[in-house]
């Protein structure tokens, strides 16, 4: 028979593994962290990773308690997020494509604190698909848990998010000096192109919703 301590650890591990499962697939947040680790100063890249984790945790908690249901109830909210989110994401991707090789990693192109925080917020919260997917995963899991286990489960999700994004930044930043300017430029362009594709997909979803 599993004791109280064992049950607590079990709920925590469920939250931890669920958190890693949500973060691991390559998406906008991971691309943003990777790009910052390669092109920004180490201090600025850690700040970016911290705020990505912070906003991701806030979104996970919101998904756990049913923000996806709110979006389904208010169709206009989903449409608005899709429109503004897609345009902002496309704009960010274009900026990455336009960055010159000589500019990558220079102090002149280092993001301001405001831009770092606002971009991290947009990457996490202006992606309706991520909100809905997160709600399906975390919301579905919530109904299987006793109410008193919620803080323990969410604690596991919180730790997974911080470990993932800070760890990803650490690994990429540690090895970025091994990349020359040409490689950095290529990575920058790939990240920019993928981000634009994400933005176009969001915009396509917006058009689909409008038509139907």
Automatic annotation (TrEMBL):
Q: Where are the transmembrane segments?
A: 12-34, 46-70, 76-99, 111-132, 152-175, 187-211
Q: Does the keyword Amino-acid biosynthesis apply?
A: no
**Which InterPro entries would you find in this protein's record?**
LeuE-type
The leader peptide range reads none
Superkingdom in the source lineage? Bacteria
Indicate yes or no for the key word DNA repair: no
What is the membrane topology listed in the Swiss-Prot or TrEMBL record? Multi-pass membrane protein
Pfam families listed in its UniProt record: LysE
Where primarily located?
membrane
Q: Which UniProt keywords apply?
A: Cell membrane, Membrane, Transmembrane, Transmembrane helix
MF-aspect GO terms: amino acid transmembrane transporter activity
Compartments reported by the entry: Cell membrane
How is this protein annotated for GO cellular component? plasma membrane
Q: What is this protein called?
A: L-lysine permease
What organism, scientifically named, is this protein from? Companilactobacillus bobalius DSM 19674
What's the source species' lineage?
Answer: Bacteria, Bacillati, Bacillota, Bacilli, Lactobacillales
């Amino acid at each position: 028979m599993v004791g109280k301590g064992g049950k607590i650890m079990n709920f925590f591990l469920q939250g931890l593994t669920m958190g890693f499962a949500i973060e691991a697939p390559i998406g906008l947040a991971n691309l943003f962290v990777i790009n910052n680790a390669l092109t920004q100063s180490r201090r600025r890249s850690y700040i970016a990773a911290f705020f990505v984790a912070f906003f991701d945790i806030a979104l996970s908690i919101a998904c756990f308690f049913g923000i996806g249901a709110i979006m389904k109830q208010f169709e206009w909210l989903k449409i608005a997020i899709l429109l503004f989110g897609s345009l902002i994401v496309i704009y960010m991707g274009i900026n990455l494509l336009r960055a010159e090789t000589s500019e990558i990693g220079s102090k002149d192109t280092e993001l301001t604190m405001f831009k770092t925080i606002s971009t991290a917020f947009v990457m996490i919260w202006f992606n309706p698909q991520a909100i809905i997917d997160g709600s399906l995963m975390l919301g579905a899991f919530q109904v299987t848990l006793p109410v008193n286990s919620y803080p323990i489960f969410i604690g596991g999700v919180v730790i997974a998010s911080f470990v993932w994004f800070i760890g990803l930044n650490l690994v990429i930043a540690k090895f970025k000096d091994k990349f020359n300017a040409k490689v950095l430029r290529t990575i920058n362009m790939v990240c920019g192109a993928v981000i634009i594709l994400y933005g176009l997909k969001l915009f396509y979803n917006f058009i689909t919703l409008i038509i139907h």
